[in-house]
Amino acid sequence: MQVINKLNNNFAICIDGEGKELIAVGKGIGFPKTPYEVEDLNLITRTFYDIDPKYIELFKDIPEKVVHFTAKLVEIAKNELGYEMNPNLVVTMSDHIHFSIQRAQKNIDVQMPLIYEVEQTFPAEARIGKYAVKQIERRFNVWLDPNEASGIAMNFVNARYDTRLKTDVADQLKKQYQEILEDTISIVEDEIGIVIDRDSFNFARYSSHLMYLLDRIAGNKMLYSDNGIMYQSMKEEFPGIAACVELLERYFKRKCGIILSKEEKLYLILHINRICTREGL
């Protein structure tokens, strides 16, 4: 196996004996000067194939412990759920779990869809989500809202739909979704003064959040909670981003006839701030 590019000291882009590209995980494999041959394959603890290039850089930011935990969780889910999953799931789920842990450590309470609602439609995925929450709490010494299980469950649902099982509903929403996605991302770019790479993970993350938001709008299930104080605090800490979110709210009022709740605006501030952070602002 040849290491061709370092992601960090323990993650690297490699080429296997059949010429296929993969992400390899192993202690110190990214430390030597690249390219080089890995002589002892026992150093490699995990490999990930068919990862979309736009997600690869994310491995630099996610702790190795979280990636290993997520990989094991996905293996369990594959056995339990019995369907094919998008190979990018390990990366996107790792990012989701890492973000959940960070929010818990900073006492940021972002209300998720109620797990019992997800259970009505996706009981098997919800069961895995609840199991995951308990394991995250135990492994990472944090407390998570039980409804965090719904976000994990929906990651599995979306990974399934991203392969061969796109639903008619998703096809019907696609045209409107793409239009709103481009409109809103253009508002962010104009207001913040950045250009967001449409092939980047930042864009993919925002796209996923927007799809969830449109689903909640369509189902009249806007997120509400007692996070008014947190929202006000975030507005004061990030006034430029908060002003951008106010423009997005006007857009949604004009386009969809709805007013975003403070909870939804708080979530948008968090996501747009992550975009700005990744863009170096």
UniProtKB/TrEMBL annotation:
Source species, domain of life: Bacteria
Name of a matching Pfam family: CAT_RBD
Span of domain PRD: 61-166, 172-281
GO biological process: regulation of DNA-templated transcription
InterPro entries, per the entry: BglG_antiterminators, CAT_RNA-bd_dom, CAT_RNA-bd_dom_sf, PRD, PRD_sf
Keyword Cell wall biogenesis/degradation attributed: no
MF GO annotations: RNA binding
Keywords: Repeat, Transcription, Transcription regulation
Record's protein name: Transcription antiterminator LicT
